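Protein modeling request. Please complete all fields; requests missing the sequence field cannot be processed.
Requester role: graduate student
Desired output: 3D structure, token encoding
Chains: 1
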Amino acid sequence: MTSAHKNKKVDFNYSGETLNIHVVTDGMGLEELEADWRRLTDTLSVFSSYEWIQSYWHHLGSGNLFILVVRCNGAARCIAPFAVTRCRFLGIPYKRIQFIGTEPSGTSPLNPLNRIFAIDHRIGWANKANFIALPEDAYLTGAVASFLAKNKHLWDILDLREIQDNSPYMEYFHKELSKGNARSHIVAGDPSAYIELSKDYQTYVKSRSKNIRKNIQVCTKRLHKAGRGEFITITTPEEVIEALPSIKKLEQASWKNNDGVGAFSNTERELFHCTLAEALARDDRFILFLLKSKKGDILTYYYSFLYGDTLYLHNTAFDIKARKCSPGIIAFLKVVEWGFDQGLARVVIGRGGQYYKNAYRTGTTARSWHFIFRDSVLMRLLATVELGILPWLRAKKKALSTNSVNT
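Delivered output (407 residues):
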């Protein structure tokens, strides 16, 4: 996370405007952007917020900061929150630029196939990434692309993950880069599930399948019979800080900790999630939902973000001793009901193929990974491996695993 270069300013002409591109490469420069960042991210997601980026970089960031700020008459109008990492492919070094927060950090170690090529396809914590600009200034991402096209010595691959499909920001970005010799590839990512909170909670429950409705009734009865089911929302910074050690303990007793995918499964992730929770709670954008037993034990929790009219369910775990009562499903439905009561528009469940996400979602948002390679022999080879050979090998491996299970 150290910086190899000092922050600098480059005068730039784009689309008839005289602009400045500021290159921010150290933590102090990031902190100085806080006011502009907050002004520009009001309509974006929590994963583009200053709290997310700053906390992530401080505790989990890798490589060097490479934040590009487009200014006009001194005012910041577009921010590209990048980091640049030096990687190796077959022993040869190259530079990869990614959005901060999407670089891999939230999953288990690399499989042997990817280790051979030193390629990392693990998914980071962010569920959505983007450039930071007001909608009317989306075209300024083209200025960022133009700057990168004129400074190709700074990068070899632009690896932009977790981008919402049909993003106008990416449209302008690709349009500008296509004028050069860069090679672009777009790969479908995991869709993000959500629940649209239209009408009311009872109408939503009735819209679920007969089996799901029956399952809800059975789980609710079991929970009441066991004398459990106090639903609590925690929002103040002091209460959040007090509750975090308890949910950490609950998660560390779950399968997530063993698989290395938990929010608290190592010191860096724990510090990131604790810092982030406190920072967002002070801005009324964090909610911790708890389902407790009558004895006061936490049966399950949802570590969540409230951003505008959208609630993001980021992390959860449950007490394995209470699994017969399905406390996770009960708490999940309580959270959805709370969202209806608060007049929210949507609950974002996130990506992944868990049963409850498929059973309770009302829709999904498509995500994609944008790979842009410099036109060189090494990058052509890397593109062939990353986008052709490795996916083919993974598909073959998956097919063999499926066949072995069926036989």
